[in-house]
Amino acid sequence: MVKIARYIQAGRFESGGIFGVGSNQVLIPQKKRFESLVKIASFLKRETDSDNLYEYIKNNVSGVSEDDINFSLSLFREKNSLMSSSYFNSDDRYSRNVFYYHYLGANSKEVQEKISKSKVTIIGCGGIGNHISYLLATSGVGTISIVDSDIIEISNLTRQVLFSEKDVNFLKIDILERELLKRNSELNVKKVNLEIKHKDDLSKIEKSDLFIVSADTPFELINWVNDYCFEKKQPYLNVGYINDLSVIGHFVIPGETACFSCSKVVPDYACDDELQDNLATINSDFKAATFPSVNGVAASYAFGDVMKFLGGYGEILSKNRRIGIHSRKIKIETQEIPKNERCNICGLQPK
Questions:
Q1: N or C: which end of the chain has fewer CB within 10 A?
Q2: In the chain, which ranges are continuous DSSP H helix?
């Protein structure tokens, strides 16, 4: 039994009308076609046997042609406008998420079941780690491992939204665990008090469905993570910021996508000792000029790809692609990262 989904709206526009909202919205320019579509959709606000929709509409809705019925049913299916009422329970914790998955064309129940059984590891519990762990916890991810060794500092509170003044000088992983469980008592949180100083330290972290890398130190961390994850066939996603740019990706799935080393840029000239020393001096005390909104945008955008990966639906937008979202102007730029067959990390991986 199906009916028109509750996320569907329709309205008059110019000579016809608009059916649906969001990216599935459709403009129907012909008034008669729009009126027939609305009449059929209005009728299907009641539950109807999905196996006999055409005949049921034909026998019960007057003033619509067979062509109108075929057009409407084709549109409803293409735009995911029909939904089983059993898929939506307003008392269910994840009911709005279920709506969203169905809107994107996924089997909502299957997606939520996959997510509830998933395990995610977050390396770095700062601004992005706070945001994305909160989003994952409240969306029903089964297990979240949080990896960090830092204590909370007063300067963290502008971005690390789950911490408060009374939490200063406590371990980030302890406070983050407390706050995540406040929001979802069914969540399994695993704490890993670990300062990563070498690639081998990553072996102290259990394998999971996905590593989310939101730590920015030490400088070589992303290279260590990339090497380690390809050795262990561990998917990962790097999420961060470059001052005023929110940066997502690219999403790395060993054996399927490019790796971080595929995109390494080699300068066209050799570096003499003086230049090397001067570069080292400039870069020695780098501290990113971060801001709460830049953190939040990166985490939220990455979260969408994480859920697609865990739930097995939709297109992972940062797959083989690094995405940069500007905060000083309305601009999104992408850097395509194709697999490099000569890459010394993944180029020799079996296909």
A1: C
A2: 31-43, 53-60, 66-78, 95-103, 108-116, 127-138, 172-183, 221-232, 273-283, 292-311
Asked if the structure places residue 106 within a domain, the reply is no
Q: Which of 343, 153, 350, 337 is nearest to 249 (CA)?
A: 337
**What pLDDT score does 17 carry?**
97
Longest dimension (CA), the chain: 86
Count the Cβ atoms, other than its own, within 10 Å of residue 267. Answer: 6
| Distance, CA of 252 to CA of 241 (rounded, Å) | 18
Q: What is the mean pLDDT of the chain?
A: 93
| Residue 185, in any domain of the structure | yes
- For the whole model, what pTM was predicted? 0.90
Which residue type is seen at 243?
N
Range of the domain at 182: 118-336
Q: Phi first, then psi: what are they for 325, rounded to 5°?
A: -110, 115
| Cβ-contact 241, 288 below 8 angstroms | yes
Report the CATH number at residue 69: 3.90.930.70
Classify residue 113: in a domain, yes or no. no
Choosing from 86, 108, 142, the residue where a domain stops is 86
Cα 43 from Cα 243, distance rounded (Å): 53
Coil, helix or strand at residue 2: strand
Q: Are residues 164 and 257 in the same domain?
A: yes
SS3 258: coil
**Rounded mean pLDDT of 202-206?**
97
Assess whether 175 and 290 both reside in one domain: yes
Tokens at residue 129, please? 């780690």
Residue 250 sits in a domain of what CATH number?
3.40.50.720
Closest to 98 in 3D by CA, of 76, 115, 122: 115
Q: Do the Cβ atoms of 260 and 211 come closer than 8 Å?
A: no
Per-residue confidence band for 34, with pLDDT thresholds at 50, 70 and 90 = very high
